[in-house]
Amino acid sequence: MVDVYQEGGELPMTLHMPATKKELTSDAMKRISEWISSQDVPSDVIVSVGGVSFPTHKFALISKCGYIKKLLSDTKDADLSVVEIPDIPGGPEGFELAAKFCYETHLELSLDNIAMARCVAEYLEMTEEYAVGNLVSITEGYLNKTGLQNLSGAASILQSSANLLPVSEKVKLIDRCVDTIACMVTDESQVYVVDWWAEDLIGLRIDMFKRVLLALVSRGFKQFALGPVLMLYAQKCLRGLDFYSKSRKNLDPKQEHEKRIILETIVGLLPREKNAMSISFLSMLLRAAKHLDTTVACRLDLEKRMGLQLGQAVLEDILIPSFCFDGDTLFDVDTVQQIMMNYFEYMSKDSGDMNHAYPSQSDNENVGMLMESFLAKIASDRNLLVSKFINFAECIPMEVRVTEDGMYRAIDIYLKAHPAISDMDRKKVCSLMDCQKLSREARAHAAQNERLPVQTMVQVLYYEQQRLREMDSSSPITDLVTSHTTLESQKSVSDEISRLKKENQELKFELIKMKTRLKEIEKSNVNKPKGNNANESGGSKGKPPLPKRSLISSVTKKLGKITPFLHADGFLPSSTRGRNKPDKDRRHSVA
């Protein structure tokens, strides 16, 4: 703190009502009496600033304020007793500071008021032209010797200057603070460590913060090194937003607008290099962007950035709430799908460019499993339409799906949560997975899953039988048996072959039972219209009761599409006997 004047009386003024002579100190009264008795001292004048009245003396003001001197000299009213100054920087507080200086009272300059003092001095034209050692020169001296000598001081003055526009721009106060900060950071941060200066910058207003970062980049500071300070600033300014849940907080419109501007500015300042920001931080920004309803360009930019780093994401990073209240899904499916499409577009674009790092196979597999996990997460949402489920699943390429277990799990959850979907939609959903790529455990579960269409269950059993047949007759097993000379190795291989043969026989038996059951239902459905009377007369005594008409109709409808598939593949051993029996009967009848 610097004392401009060590001696002097108090200023005769009040912030709310005119001051009386009783409130003046003896020294101030003595000086005022001397000024009034002098021939050059005009009558007293009241200065009104922002609704606050300051009873002052013209001589005290015009001796150092060129603005007030011109204002009073240009008026035609010689008895002018009230002067209004509406746009003075700092309002009443700023004028009070200047008036104290004019009355030569105790004035202390500090980092908190130096910006205001400098701008008020400029506005009131308190230059050397009107008085030696005027307020402009005194504030400039403080800035050069004290205020702008360290980073924290420059940041404090810059923050104060943001509220004193446009005068602070006119006197180049903002530019000088920004240049001082940028110079200190770039000179002392040889290894781009941000912890020692980030704390001083995150307190700045967003427009001042942006100017400092741009100045750093222009001085050669690496843009990717700005990531940590951007994260700190975002966490500080966006604190209090509940964007991890679907519900919205009732924000004040002004506060919401300020946060929206802050977020859009931060997104525009993000480094362009890949992996400069963590994907969890980008996910947080995207949630906030949707919560605050930022511009479309801001959200698309974040979606693109997340797409480039999707291989590093976990499920929590893409669980973005849907802030719609019209029966939409719990999570934003369209946004996640766009992020996924951005990743695969980047992957296909860079596959032919040797200058770009092609996504590794592990990243592709991680993305495939991540998308299947997300699909399983949203599958239980009753508001998820079957068309949206199918559309999302079809966007996951087959080459990134190592197995179909994740897809099968998502399909099973969806069918369980949506039991009322039509048979056609059920078939479309199940056609999303390749049964041949299911693991043995998944096939065992699918073969007994009554939620799946019969066609899918039969297809699963067929591929399992085909796999076992190939393993039974493949040369690797034979080579393995011959290559192991020890009795223990031969025994283990023999046990494995026996187990596989047993599983093969069990699957064949299951297929035969399923075909027999389907044929029985088909026969009962065909004979039912003709055998109504026989059934009524007890012709079917001793036979098991037929299924209900609804069950027969549904199974017959399925058989009409399943049976040709079974016979065409020819994988059921009993199918030959079923076709040859009528031919055998025909030969006996001819004979």
Automatic annotation (TrEMBL):
Which residue windows does the record flag with biased composition (Basic and acidic residues)? 580-591
Q: Where is the composition biased (Polar residues)?
A: 526-538
* Entries under Pfam families matching the protein: BTB (PF00651), NPH3 (PF03000)
Lineage of the species this protein comes from: Eukaryota, Viridiplantae, Streptophyta, Embryophyta, Tracheophyta
| BP term (GO), one | protein ubiquitination
UniProt pathway annotation: Protein modification; protein ubiquitination
Q: Which family does it belong to?
A: Belongs to the NPH3 family.
Keywords assigned by UniProt, alphabetized: Ubl conjugation pathway
Residues in domain NPH3? 195-467
Q: Which PANTHER family match?
A: OS12G0117600 PROTEIN (PTHR32370)
The entry's protein name is BTB/POZ domain, NPH3 domain-containing protein
* Region called Disordered, residue ranges: 521-554, 566-591
Where is the BTB domain positioned along the sequence? 43-111
Q: Which organism is it from?
A: Helianthus annuus (Common sunflower)
